[in-house]
Design a protein that fits this description.
This protein is an alpha/beta fold. The chain has helices at 28-40, 55-63, 81-95, 120-129, 143-152, 168-180, 198-205, 220-230, 238-251, 271-274, 277-283, 292-299, 309-313, 320-341; strands at residues 3-5, 12-14, 17-19, 45-47, 71-76, 100-106, 133-139, 157-161, 183-187, 211-216. It has an 8-stranded parallel β-barrel with strand order 3-4-5-6-7-8-9-10, surrounded by 4 helices.
């Protein structure tokens, strides 16, 4: 097992962490089985959030009586200190623990600071004094704010999207975290499903000694793939380098990461799917995207109200409306080609 120190926290964690967002989509029995198998095989860092429906509850069920064996991180979306305190108590109850190792503010639009009037940072400091949390972290999707976080000296860890599709500016952010001794937790290491080779993704990530990727796991076979990759920690092979270069050329630049912060949509468009449909179709059998239900979902784009809400909420400053309409045109063209061939 390759281990690393998570920045100024001093926490020694396995370089492969478990992202517990997807297990909210599994039944409790399956989730408990997957989580226990991960822990039994040496994965000792688990990241969840108050907003991930029953993810915290499933972690609590799986790990009751084993608290000393792993590092635990969760998040609060609260906008003020009193709400944060309530969130924290709920998380402690659901997770069946008396403390959380890393308590993170969940993708705030502005940086919580002492004296900013929200009471968030003060509430976190109070919880730290009470022993309910050990370290204060933050997650974000906005590069300018992420830079501000690192330079603020207020946070022990930063959670930010990072993969081999990341830009040079994002790589510089990782390097700055190393210089400032801020623990870097990499979310979306598979770029929301656009990267399909976990061996290549993991080998590329390994070159950054201060980065702890959290791999979103929903199915046991996904865990098995990660465990297999962990047993083969060699450098990037020529084949993997070729796959990375191909993906960077095909997928790099401006693209939807599928974070979902653009939602909800008044026209009920599944934006985080529809805005990536053309890329997803290249990564998996296209037929699965052309089902009757899939076509109905994509047709909702025709009802777009051009309200601009998705554009204003996108942390990557994408022109989401234009992206949706472009994808829908291409999608319909692909359907016409398939129908002509039938």
């Amino acid at each position: 097992m390759t281990e690393a120190i998570l920045g100024k926290t001093g926490l020694k964690v396995n370089k492969e962490a478990f992202g517990a967002l997807p297990i909210q989509r599994t039944d409790k029995e399956t989730a408990v089985k997957i989580l226990r198998k991960a822990l039994d095989n040496g994965i000792n860092f688990y990241d969840t959030a108050r907003g991930y429906t029953d993810s915290e509850e499933k972690l609590g069920l799986a790990f009751a009586g084993r608290r000393g064996e792993f590092i635990l991180a969760t998040k609060t979306p609260s906008k003020d200190g009193e709400a944060m305190k309530r969130d924290l108590e709920t998380s402690l109850e659901k997770l069946k623990t008396t403390y959380i190792d890393i308590y993170q503010f969940h993708n705030p639009s502005v940086l919580p600071r002492p004296g900013d009037g929200s009471g968030l940072y003060e509430a976190a400091l109070e919880a730290k004094k009470q022993g309910k949390i050990r370290f204060i972290g933050i997650s974000n999707h906005r590069l300018p704010l992420a830079k501000e976080i690192v330079e603020s000296d207020l946070y022990d860890t930063l959670q930010f999207p990072f993969s081999y599709l990341s830009s040079e500016e994002e790589i510089s952010l990782v390097q700055r975290c190393a210089e400032k001794n801020v623990g870097f937790i990499a979310m979306k290491a598979l770029s929301g499903g656009l990267i399909t080779d976990i061996f290549a993704a993991r080998a590329w990530m390994a070159q950054f000694s201060n980065v702890i990727p959290i791999w979103g796991i929903q199915r046991e076979k996904e865990l098995d793939e990660l465990l297999a990759a962990m047993k083969n920690p060699g450098p990037l092979s020529p084949k993997e380098n070729g796959q990375i270069a191909k993906d960077q050329e095909e997928l790099g630049g401006e693209f939807c990461r599928g974070c979902g912060y653009c939602l909800p949509c008044p026209a009920e468009i599944q934006i985080n799917l529809a805005a990536r449909i053309n890329l997803l179709m290249k990564r998996s059998p296209a037929a699965r995207w052309f089902s009757e239900d899939g076509q109905k979902e994509m047709a909702k784009i025709e009802k777009c109200q051009d309200c601009g809400g998705c554009v204003s909420r996108c942390p990557y400053n994408l022109d989401v409306q234009a992206l949706l309409k472009k994808n829908y045109r291409n999608y319909r063209e692909d359907i016409s080609i398939l129908q002509d061939r039938a």
